[in-house]
Design goal:
The complex is a heterodimer of chains A (about 190) and B (about 375).
Chain A: H1 2-29, E1 54-56, E2 64-65, H2 72-76, E3 82-90, E4 96-106, H3 115-119, E5 126-128, E6 142-144, E7 151-152
Parallel strand pairs in A: 2-7
Antiparallel strand pairs in A: 1-5, 3-4, 4-6
Chain B: H1 2-6, H2 12-25, H3 28-65, H4 81-91, H5 102-121, H6 137-145, H7 148-158, H8 162-193, H9 198-203, H10 210-213, H11 215-232, H12 244-247, H13 257-282, H14 295-303, H15 306-325, H16 333-360, H17 365-368
Chain lengths: ~190, ~375
């Protein structure tokens, strides 16, 4: 008797659970499709700001950057992705000064570890989320990230109120020429 | 004549015109020969076209069930995807398997395709779209559709491959078991309809489809027929003959190119055949929805051509089968056989007796409510 009851209850429980399963898939049939249609949805595609795709050196409107060619990024790079070449020039007041010649970054070797950006004393470089990096030849992966004819941003002489406390500048590019200035967080270069 | 007036979209007009034109100028022998050739060619063409459409529909609906888009690159909405697949499969090399039974290996796909082709010919697609119609139609369909399993078993045997062999044996066990249920379910309706001929069976369902006419008994038979039909076509939760995680592809592991294409085609066509037989037997076939007494309504419904009704009903059943396929996980072989031998078969036997009682005691809907049905 017990087994007969079990047979029929099992049958009906089975049918009801099958119907429940079908109702779940029925709802799933009408849900929004999750597939990203990549090349078509370029305009609406959201890439996180923190996503590291390409090393860039921000230049301002005067084609000036913040890189002092100190070479710290090159030293910190774990796999030799960055090559900073600099040249010595003589300023008009007779001082010798190292300026950036080329800042070369190899996308093909980069592991996007961000060490160069973290260690840069002048915040001259950063990673952007421009994600379409595919190229046809390997040589195109090696990029010069400082713009043609760009130069180091000169430290402006600022007249500061006397009572003002030393302010940590947002743009800590330090120029040795600005002697009277309160030094804002001198990068421990060299 | 009134038929011609009220149903301008039917192909009856075309076929009768063709027949009379041919008879006007040719002798009986040539007329029949030409008509046979035309019918055969049309059936073959329909076979291929329906398979292509089904493959596309299946991939699309599957994708929708999984919250994807499905094929949408080849042509608008991916409409040409299955055509592209067909061209690809036609161009692929047919690999000769080392140490396989060459003759049986090449013969096996033909068994499969011929079996489903023979069944395909017996399906009433619409008024005057019915190639084979004789008084034992149901028996004929059941008989020839079971021939396909020979192809599966031969494929498994001749491939000389353990996976294929196990797949074929599973398929054999499954097919033999479930054919029993499918046959009994059809028999239940034969009891109700009192005929085995598809055309008379359909005409008898003009105002009341068989599924409603035999109410409880018909419903059970319908569900059982769908389940066992599903199992016979090796699809959905019953696709363990080709369980890819255990048997790579089951009985057609070793096949490539067009031979694999045959199996692929036959699988989809079998799905269609099961759905269309269920339509014919349970859902009134190509007949439109008709209600006794509602003359205007019946006229409007009649205006829609019969093949549209047929393919519409079949499409609903195919969708049901896809829905089931993407809802349930695959059964184990013992669960599969349990379902058949412990549940479907006994229920089916009781169901036949119940149907006989219903018919004999006059408890079918047409007997109970002759005014409405």
């Amino acid at each position: 008797m017990r087994s007969i009851a079990k047979y029929f209850s099992g049958l009906f429980i089975g049918i009801s659970s099958l119907l429940k399963g079908m109702s779940v898939t029925w709802r799933e049939l009408w849900t929004k499709k999750v597939t990203q249609q990549y090349p078509e949805n370029r305009d609406t595609l959201v890439i996180s700001d923190r996503f590291r795709c390409e090393l860039v050196m921000p230049h301002d409107e005067n084609n000036e950057h913040a890189c002092t060619a100190c070479g710290i990024c090159q030293m910190n790079c774990p796999n030799g992705t960055i090559v900073v070449t600099s040249q010595m020039i003589e300023t008009e007041d007779g001082k010798k000064k190292k300026i950036l010649d080329t800042h070369q970054w190899d996308l093909g070797m980069c592991t996007f570890c961000n060490l160069c950006v973290i260690t840069c004393p002048s915040d001259a470089i950063k990673f952007e989320n421009t994600y379409e990096n595919a190229v046809f030849t390997r040589s195109k992966l090696v990029q010069k990230i400082n713009h043609e004819g760009s130069k180091l941003r000169e430290k402006k002489k600022e007249v500061k109120p006397v009572e003002a406390k030393p302010v940590v500048e947002a743009k800590p590019v330090v120029e040795k020429k600005a002697v009277e200035e309160v030094k804002p967080e001198e990068p421990k270069a060299e | 004549m009134i038929l011609n007036y009220s149903q301008p979209l039917e192909v009856t007009n075309l076929t009768s015109w063709l027949d009379s034109t041919l008879r006007g100028s040719l002798s009986e022998f040539w007329v029949l020969l030409i008509e046979f050739v035309i019918v055969g060619a049309l059936l073959l063409a329909a076979y291929a076209v329906i398979a292509l459409i089904l493959i596309y529909a299946e991939r699309k609906i599957t994708a929708f069930f999984q919250a994807r888009f499905g094929p949408n690159r080849v042509g608008k909405w991916g409409l040409l995807q299955s055509v592209a697949d067909m061209i690809k499969i036609l161009l692929k090399e047919i690999v000769k398997i080392n140490r396989s039974d060459r003759f049986l290996f090449f013969a096996a796909p033909f068994f499969m395709i011929v079996a489903s082709m023979l069944t395909f010919g017996a399906i009433p697609f619409g008024k005057a779209l019915h190639a084979i119609d004789f008084n034992i139609g149901v028996l004929y369909v059941t008989a020839v559709s079971s021939l396909g399993i020979i192809g599966v078993l031969l494929a498994g045997w001749s491939s000389n491959n353990k996976y294929s062999m196990i797949g074929a044996m599973r398929s054999g066990a499954q097919f033999v078991s479930y054919e029993l249920s499918a046959g009994f379910a059809l028999m239940t309706i034969v009891v109700l309809a009192g005929t085995m001929q598809f055309s008379t069976m359909i005409e008898g369902q003009r105002y009341c489809w068989n599924i409603f006419n035999g109410h409880i008994s018909s419903m059970i038979a319908f569900v059982i027929y769908l389940i066992s039909g599903h199992a016979e076509t090796n699809r959905g939760p019953f696709d363990l003959p080709e369980a890819e995680s255990e048997l790579t592809a089951g009985y057609h592991t070793e096949y490539s190119g067009l031979q694999f294409g045959f199996y692929y085609l036959a699988e989809y066509l079998n799905m269609f055949i099961i759905a269309s037989i269920a339509t014919t037997v349970f859902l009134g076939g190509y007949l439109p929805i008709q209600v006794k007494g509602w003359v205007d309504f019946n006229g409007i419904m009649d205006y829609i051509p019969s093949y549209v009704w047929f393919f519409g009903k079949t499409a609903v059943l195919i969708f049901l089968s896809l829905w089931v396929r993407w809802s349930f996980p695959r059964l184990r072989i013992d669960q599969l056989l349990n379902l058949e031998w412990k549940y479907l078969l006994p229920i089916n036997l009781v169901n036949i007796v119940l149907m006989v009682i219903l018919v004999l005691t006059g408890l079918t809907l047409t007997d109970l409510l002759p005014g409405i049905f």
